[in-house]
Amino acid sequence: MLNTTSNNYAFYLKLDNDDKLGILRKIAYQVASLDSLNKLTIYNEILDNELQGSTIFSHRVAFCFAVNDEIKMPQIFLFSLDNAVAWGNDEQMVDYIVIAILPNGFSNNQFTLLNSLVSQVIRQNASQLNNAKKDQRALSKLNEFFESINFQIQSSKRGDILNIFQELRNIYITYGDTNSLLRVEAYILNGSILQVRQIRLEKIDLENEILELPVGMSSNDKIIFFKPNKKLARGNMATDIKTQSHLIKNLLERLILLQK
Question: Is residue 131 classed exposed, middle or buried when 0-12, 13-18 and 19+ CB atoms within 10 A define those classes?
């Protein structure tokens, strides 16, 4: 028996001594019924992808997906299990499952952002995950976050937003700046990038080196959007980092315009 929140993104799932296949079957059939999709097709697609390897976030949330010809927009759902079950080759115990139903043509960039958004929601809402087992309000809060994820990946401008995110991601990874990457992911997820203003280059003392870096103001806080590992800079360090800083500034400005 499934109890849903009003917007149908988060569910409780009661297990009846189900193994992994039984759980996937229940979830696949429920998700398929929401969009009048072929239940067996969804189940087989999820199962085929799981056989390629399991993805688990924060040691407790399994992530599964299926690609389907019948849908035009992706749909993401969260299932809260009443008991933890062993998952994957390592038989790690999970008590939540995220299911993504994706249209054909869903790009690698889109899939990368989807993974990032889901992972971030899980990381930042550990207490909600605990409370949702006994508190409907906590599950409703998680439902709001998953509604936001669905909105982000279904946006008519998502292609441009995803391309900008991928460009930013490449810079941050190249220069070892995972903190800025996570910050921008958070801003894309909750829309707070719209609150950032006056993005500009400013001379900042970074580890005893004066570098021009992109900064912005949010409320009364100054945010530095690039803190590179200087050892990863190419050629003339100051020139290289200034070039990347200009690019980040331009990409962030474009991102703000797209999300208005």
Answer: middle
